[in-house]
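Tutorial handout. Part one gives the primary structure; part two gives the three-dimensional structure as tokens.
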Amino acid sequence: MSKHDYTGLLYAEPSWLEGFARVLDVGGVFDDFNYSSTPEEADRLALTSDWYAVGADLHRAIRRYLADKIGATTHVGRSSGR
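Part two.
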């Protein structure tokens, strides 16, 4: 699971060989999930994953907005020199 991929908390990430074997797995024998000891723990992990994803999206949007805003103000009043 990558740093910004929060969906991986809900399922096990297969290796390259397991991924290749899944292509041939018609019966779904290789399906593997991350199990929780209680339904409450599964809900907590899912909600935590969702909020981390929302936070990451907000952080990315704020950074992009600030970069655009700062980039727009630094070019004000400059001549192109042409």
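Part three, for discussion. Residues 7-74 form one domain. Helices lie at 16-24, 39-74.
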